[in-house]
Specification:
The chain has nine helices and nine strands. With 230 residues, the protein is of the alpha/beta class. Belongs to the sirtuin family. Class III subfamily.
């Protein structure tokens, strides 16, 4: 019986055509974080923020899971043990690939909430600042994504899972953003074997017991096959 916790970042969705944030020409080279990924930016110009997420929502809706997402779903279906995916991504490619046990610590593009009364609902494809909240009628609807300066979701559940993990795998993340960047240290503290699967060494590569580099669509299926045939 093996418990595996898998952290994923934008790199796992790169080969599905969705942009990463900090690679050459990434999202943070095209947009200012303070304008589109902070509560202050949303208060200043909600239309700009909705435009940014409407474009990403449309792109994510068309995107298809790649071999890495499919391999993780196969791992969950066939492993003698529990597989939990903790994703920093707001796309739904893990779910499209068939993964069921997925926590979106940075929220999801297909979810919306009200900045005034905190009601949550499934997001329409296009959101606008004039959309009234279905609960309190205030025009304060926002994408249910976690912005810089806000608390990530599911942190208690994630902490518990890390304390029980036999293996912690980090896939397609630069290790630049906390608290996700510290999960490897937490898992290691509780005795987990830690593995980084990434295109190139992340900021935290030296903290992993094992690192493999290459495109996720090739190194993740290879690792999953080894894990299932262990
Ligand atoms: N296969 C594997 N890894 C890849 C691939 C690929 N095909 N392409 C890129 N990568 C790696 C890059 O080398 C990089 O280490 O994915 C990582 C992407 O890093 P970032 O762009 O920083 O994305 P991420 O780590 O997910 O960012 C974390 O920052 O801005 C916030 O909320 C945002 O969730 C995001 C968080």
């Amino acid at each position: 019986m093996t418990n595996i916790v898998i952290l994923t970042g934008a790199g796992i969705s790169a080969e599905s055509g969705l942009g990463t944030f900090r690679d050459e020409g990434g999202l943070w080279a095209q947009h200012r974080i303070e304008d589109v990924a902070t509560p202050e930016g949303f208060a200043r110009n909600p239309q700009l923020v909705h435009d940014f997420y409407n474009a990403r929502r449309a792109q994510a809706a068309k995107a298809k899971p790649n071999a890495a997402h499919v391999a993780l779903a196969k791992l969950e279906q066939n492993l003698d043990g529990e597989v939990l995916i903790v994703t920093q991504n707001v796309d739904s490619l893990h779910e499209k690939a068939g993964s069921k046990n997925v926590l979106h610590m940075h929220g999801a593009l297909n979810k919306a909430c009200c900045a005034a009364c905190d009601l949550r609902w499934d997001a329409p494809m296009v959101m606008s600042p004039s959309d009234p909240c279905a609960g309190c009628d205030t025009p304060a609807t926002r994408p249910e994504v976690v912005w810089f300066g806000e608390m990530p979701f599911h942190m208690e559940e994630i902490g518990l899972a890390l304390s029980k993990a036999d293996v912690f795998v980090s896939i397609g993340t630069s290790g630049e953003v906390y608290p996700a960047a510290n999960f490897v240290a937490e898992a290691d503290h509780f005795g987990a074997h830690t593995i980084e699967l990434n295109l190139e060494p992340s900021a935290g590569a030296s903290r992993f017991s094992e690192c493999r580099f290459g495109p996720a669509s090739s190194i993740v299926p290879k690792w999953v096959e080894e894990e299932l045939n262990r």
